[in-house]
Amino acid sequence: MPGVECRPHAVQTRDVRDSHILMACLAVGFCTVPGVACDPPATETAPPITSSGSATPVSQSLTTLLDRIPDRARVELDAEQASKFMQLSLGCVDREYPNKPSWVLGSEASLVPPKSRTAAFFGCFDWHSAVHGHWAMARVLRRFPEGKDAPTLRSKLDAHLTPTSLEAELAFFREQDNRTFERPYGWGWLLRLAAELQGWKDKDGQRWSKNLAPLAQFLAGRMADYLPRLTVPIRDGSHANTAFAMVHALDYARALGDEAFEKVLVERAQAFYLQDRACPTDYEPSGEDFISPCLVEADLMRRVLPQTRFVSWLDAFLPPMTDARFRPLLTPVEVKDRKDPKIGHLIGLALQRAWSMQGIASVLPKSDPRRALLERLARLHRHDALQQMFDSGYGGEHWLASFAIYLLTDVGIEGG
To answer: What is the mean pLDDT of residues 146-163?
Structure first.
């Protein structure tokens, strides 16, 4: 468009009608929109890491960066530590209040105690936290069947995962007003619980798995219907994130051998994310995130793509780890108020970042220098979160134990 200069980015449009012109502007790098001045994006690039004043190869740069990251000891989950986490889960599983129900009130008849609507998962402040609290208990019980808390864990799971309670849960989800309840986060965690119980060579575990199966199958069907209708994924840093729920769902589909559901998930993951490039890690995190939108996407795609394709995809998706754009992921985020239930999400973010980094590292070739760096970063984030989570008050304690168990038991990693 002759006569007016446009330099992409730092855009200030006066009118929505200019947006289509502006998009064309940005596509070619110059154009004109009356009254609009656009400047090229100021790309902040980390100064090259050098040795003896000269630029080093990428691998040497990563090695130098690795040396600058504090090396925390790897934490292995033992029975004593597992018991410490379980006190948090056991402390909320039957605690009905405070409670955030989150269901649609169709009439005054909906104004009832949570336990009368969701008979199995009514504690731990909200439905999804109750669900993954049960998952954490089941996972610890499987790992430490002779642990000191084992009888209590078994008793709690037996009391909640009954046919009657789970039939009531299914009836609740079948109601029209509740068709989007806990979509997709809670759905994902319910499928994670079902995957955990599947294949457990334990008489009680097999019974609980059978009781839970109708609800799990129903929500898997809901997700299989929902994802193809979703035009673009939700890249949120909290409950709405699409990739986070799909990680759980895909592990469930594979644990149960549900090939049809797995096919839907793989197809939708590729449709949503395969063409993604240059994830804006420099914009992470938002102030109340407990999910890294970039890392959780990579954690999903490592499950979907063979190694060679994944490495190629990752090269284009994440900025170089020595680049300034990756810098926000190099250190855990400061949590200025641990007891604020929203700000305290950032403690969980460190745990989720850590398990995503571990998962990504696990599928990289052993010769890839990013592998060692991601493993060290995972240990750093894990150390930070574990130092803070027991000082988070009920707003954090009702859910952080599940995230810690997920990380420390290597969920989704071969052998975990």
So the answer is: 98
Mention every residue, 6+ apart, whose C-beta is less than 8 A from residue 16. Answer: none
3-class SS at 388? helix
- Domains of the chain by residue range: 1-41, 78-273, 274-416
pLDDT in tens, 156-185: 999 999 999 999 999 999 999 999 999 999
* The pLDDT of residue 5 is above 80: no
**Neighbour tally for 394: CB within 10 Å:** 16
Question: Two tokens at 342?
Answer: 């929203």
Neighbours of 311 (CB within 10 A): 16
Contact 118, 172 (CB under 8 A): yes
Token pair, residue 4, equals 């007016």
Q: Which two tokens stand for residue 62?
A: 């990563």
Give the three-state DSSP class for 398.
Answer: helix
Euclidean distance between CA atoms 411 and 107, whole angstroms: 41
Spatial distance between the Cα atoms of 225 and 396, rounded to a whole number of angstroms = 33
Q: Could you give the CA distance from residue 122 to residue 117 in angstroms, rounded to a whole number?
A: 8
